[in-house]
Specification:
Length: 405
């Protein structure tokens, strides 16, 4: 059986697909991953023996460069729909499966390809807030009309159908017509399907019921990372007390660069050594001699259990990795699902949220004191014990045994 995994997004969108790909290959399935043409994605997938089918432009170039112009949005969306349709269609097979996540136009293209080839289609969300629910509001797309203050979640989700149709309905249906598929009148629900999957941990990102949507929560898809930390990192860790890790992954941090600098400075002021993850923001050294180490690509699963705290952007992958390691977290959310994960960290008592409009040394220091408090670490350790690691196995079983799903 061939399974095509599809996404257009950052590392946090690709890594879960790697986890699922590993479990599927262990069960004898043939796997392809359609994703952006990043060298780091290809390298990680190659380690698992999974080929990358490169689709679209580099996400890193896109997020690190000038912000796209609003007038370019329809053309970009249409290109993603067409690009993922063609790539998935070329790789999928009748009776196989297509699993899609990532930006909506890419998932829409994958959905149409699965329909055209006769493959089973599953849409997976990597955060609960992207799925319709009475318990949370939908994501507000830029440029769309704001609902009146006090509008309930049910009505907001009805408005979301209108927004999704306005933003994506035209390009999706134009492409479907071009390839001989019938139009759809509710593009959001067509792509999400009546039974989407949710690849989040039930402790960190629970699906709250009652809800009309029949969601299958598999647990988070976690790929085992067996890469060594390297001599430089090991030497730094051995040279003193556990450091604070500061890194923002795939976020360019255009509007919050000062937070990274202040986090490093204030951690040092509190007597803590620091490991800085360079990331896509290109964070640099703090000029603090042997007390600050800057690293590039690093194994979070090996590093986070050995740090005093993790300061990060609130991506699903980093949040889960830190929580699984029992490391207290200071979350600086930037966009989309990150405010949700930041709120969950605070609600669970395993860290704090920093979202000050004007960052200051005093406020960053106060947040770090909360995160570094022994009570926060004790709570983080307790929560870590309840996090499951078999989500990708559950998903693989559901894919290969459809009757069970």
């Amino acid at each position: 059986m061939r399974v095509v995994l599809s996404t257009y997004g950052s590392r946090g969108d690709v890594e879960p697909l790697l986890a699922l790909a590993e479990r599927l290959r262990e069960a004898g399935a043939e796997v392809r991953v359609c994703a952006p043409p990043e060298e780091e994605f290809a390298a990680r997938l190659a380690q698992a023996g999974v080929p990358l089918v490169a689709v679209g432009e580099s996400v890193r170039t896109l997020v690190s460069g000038p912000p796209p112009k609003p007038e370019d949005f329809p053309a970009r969306a249409a290109a993603l729909v067409a690009g993922f349709y063609e790539a998935v269609l070329a790789e999928a097979e009748p009776g196989g499966a297509v699993v899609a996540t990532g930006l909506f136009p890419s998932a829409a293209g994958a959905r149409s390809a699965a329909e055209a080839v006769g493959a089973r289609f599953v849409h997976v969300s990597l955060q609960p807030t992207m799925l319709p629910s009475p318990h949370h509001p939908p994501f507000q797309y830029p440029g769309r009309p704001q609902a009146p203050e006090g509008t309930g979640n049910a009505e907001l989700w009805e408005r979301d159908v209108e927004s999704m149709n306005a933003l994506f309905g035209g390009v999706v249906n134009a492409h479907r017509a071009a390839v001989g598929l019938p139009p759809v009148d509710n593009v959001r629900d067509h792509v999400l399907t009546g039974r989407p999957w949710l690849a989040t941990d039930e402790v960190l990102g629970p699906w709250r019921r009652p809800a009309a949507l029949d969601v299958v929560q598999t647990g988070a898809w976690l790929a085992a990372d067996r890469r060594p930390l390297g001599a430089e990192v090991e030497e730094f860790l051995a040279a003193g007390a556990p450091p604070v890790y500061v890194g923002f992954g795939s976020m360019p941090m255009r509007g919050s660069a000062d937070v990274a600098r202040l986090a490093v400075e204030q951690a040092r002021a509190l007597g803590r050594r620091v490991v800085v993850g360079r990331g896509w923001a290109g964070l640099g050294p703090a000029g603090d001699g042997g007390h600050c180490l800057v690293v590039g690509e690093v194994n979070h699963q090996a590093l986070f259990p050995r740090v005093a705290a993790v300061v990060h952007h609130g991506g699903a992958g980093t949040t889960t990795a830190a929580a699984r390691a029992g490391a207290p977290q200071l979350v600086v959310p930037q966009m989309v699902d990150q405010p949700y994960w930041a709120a969950r960290v605070a609600e669970l008592g395993i860290g704090a949220v920093y979202d000050a409009a004007v960052p200051s040394a005093a406020s960053v220091a106060a947040a770090l004191r909360t995160v570094l408090d022994p009570a926060t670490r004790a709570r983080a350790a307790a929560v870590a014990g309840g996090i499951r690691t078999d989500g990708a196995e559950v998903a693989a079983r559901l894919l290969l045994e459809p009757a069970a799903g």
